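## retry 2 of 3
previous attempt timed out at serialization; input unchanged, resubmitting
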Amino acid sequence: MPRELLEKLQIWVYAAALALGAGLGLWQPDFGATLEWLISPIIAVLLYGMFAQIPLLHLRAAFANRRFTMALLTVNFLAVPAFVWVLTHFLPSHPPLLLGVYLVLLTPCIDYVIVFTHLGRGDARLILAATPLLLFVQMLLLPVYLWFFMGGQAAQIITAGPFLQAFFILIVLPLGLAVVTEFWAKRSAGVTRWLVATAWLPVPFMAITLFLVVVSQIGRVEEFFPLVSRIVPVYVIFMVIMPLIARVAAHMFHLDTEAGRALAFSAGTRNSLVVLPLALALPDTWILAAAVIVTQTLVELIGELFYIRLVPAVIFPELKNL
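## retry succeeded, writing output
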């Protein structure tokens, strides 16, 4: 199959992966749970393939885009918290449930958002360049937000360890390997051929990632379904509204079309795979928070399939000045 055809059919490939993961996870939940450890390394391979397609040795222009950086910080750390605060007023006043919602919605994604931005024809270099800043700011502000929304007890549970571990495995390692690959591709025909071959990695490894997340976590969602089902509308509303807010912000900061798309993907994509270890490390009385985060992952992964079509076609179409 030509790579272009595979990319054209990617939505159907992802839908099949989601369906297969859900079916197997519900049929054999114990087996599915044993696959959880594979999620991080598979995402690392996925991101390596994605990073290798970005001219990493020419990222200086992305760092210099101050308007995009200001728009990114404004949307993710001002507009999103304000909107989340409004949304959670429609949820039950149940601390583990609310903690899960706050953990996942207040933290912008730092990993597969780069993949979806690329698939949605946004400027993935801008998101990549902003990744360290996004990680630092969310680590700094998440305890503040939790204290503001829930009180000091919730803020005390957040530690930097899981964030840093995920950042190294999911970002630093694949990014470093991609830089080395691009560097040596200029000096070796064999490495050049390998660099070309890495263009095949994103679609199949995204499908594997979707499968692993669903098959390993669907049992936890089923266990708490009566409660977590009540937050699904909140997650859907969040994904619908955030690209519209990003559209307004892109106009305010005079971003170009591809930068606007990148902003929309960052605004609507949350850090579920990184904050999930935080929830899993909580006492048993707070385990519902993990199910809440996993539910957001499932809603988001389905929503991203719409994003990669609708963001470039409807929210930020071609040849439009923002």
